[in-house]
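Hi R.,

Here's the input for the flavin mononucleotide complex you asked about:
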Amino acid sequence: MAEEMRVVLRNYGKIDPLKIEDYINAGGYQALEKARSMSQTDVIEEVRKSGLRGRGGAGFNAGQKWNFAFQAQADQKYVICNADEGEPGTYKDRTIMQGDPHSVLEGMAICGYAIGASKGYIYCRGEYPYVVDLLNQAIDQAREKGVLGDFDIEVRMGAGAYVCGEETALIESIEGHRGEPRFKPPYPPVSGLWGKPTIVNNVETLASVPVILEKGGDWYAGLGAASYPGTKVLTLTGDVVNKTVIEVPTNTTICEVIYDFGGGIAGGKAFKAVQIGGTSGAFIPESLLDTQIDFDSMSAAGASLGSGAVLVMDETRDIVDVVCRIAKFFEHESCGKCAPCREGTMRLHKLMNKLNAGEGSAADIALLNKLGRVMSVACLCGLGQAAPSPVLTTIKHFQPDYNAKLQ
Ligand SMILES: Cc1cc2nc3c(=O)[nH]c(=O)nc-3n(C[C@H](O)[C@H](O)[C@H](O)COP(=O)(O)O)c2cc1C
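And here is the predicted structure with flavin mononucleotide in place:
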């Protein structure tokens, strides 16, 4: 396997995650100390200068987001670590939290200091009860050592709803309501948890923060792609030789990910497609494999980096069948709050089922295309907006697979 660049996973496998002393001996909590010796605005400027953009899917500049919350006037502010990781095929946040939980706590505490928040929550995927235990142990140790100062962290557990990874549905869920997205604006940095300024950042984003404070924003900005600097933790799954988690600079190409790190297609078969970014990610054909994985290059190719799941499919995979299963997933996961998603995901699934059963026509494909385009702009949140992406990109790049199933 090609050599990784480990920034977020710098301590992975090297320290005992259950021993805070190991983290401290590896230089842990020094970045927090350094941050506290700086002004809040200098900390935010350092993060902004690093160019760090959210690793949870939307790719928003972290420093800029922190600045919105810093400037908002309130008696209480919050930091939320989004550890919902409900995306099938994604386990990068689990890997980070299991291998180095204190890097996430330290990143949260630095954010708390920068924006003026004394309370943090980690919203952890319900299917990760062992991670919740581990996080609670790490928080207890940090409290005992006093390293977090007046910043406190509580872990909340999700209950298995994919939509609760969406930041406002997540906030609703922490507040004890049904996990449904809110209308935006206002955005959470202005009005989030209990109406207070709230930063919601992904696990990987927050775990990147201590090293940025330690080595400087300029150092980080020099890694990987200029418009989306740093590294990305990816999970390689599907028909690839090495099914594993890797961390690579963001200017790595998809081809390098699959062949240099993934070891190529398993069983000596040929490549067919790769879906990047999770269930709602685009299906990428061979002709686009030289695309860099950074957020902007992926967008330009009509795809998204999303959470960093890389699902490789070999020549034997039935694309229409795979997309049909994905459509079923979205019908099931739609929260039903807005009509375009509630009805749209159901119709997408029905039409895909029809085509997959060999009972569809060219008119059904045209209808899918139209419905998908409407949903991508009409749905309330990213779930419904992105749900048609596998349908739309496979109709675009894998048309022969659809034609082969027409009536
Ligand atoms: C349906 C849906 C699910 C999401 N799931 C997650 C998730 O599991 N983890 C995550 O960090 N972001 C998830 N997001 C993105 C969040 O809404 C938000 O953009 C992110 O947590 C912000 O953190 P970042 O700026 O550090 O990326 C999801 C978005 C949508 C629409």
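One thing worth noting: The pocket of flavin mononucleotide is lined by residues 54-58, 60, 82, 84-87, 162-163, 165-167, 200-202, 205, 381-383 (CB under 6 Å).

Cheers,
M.
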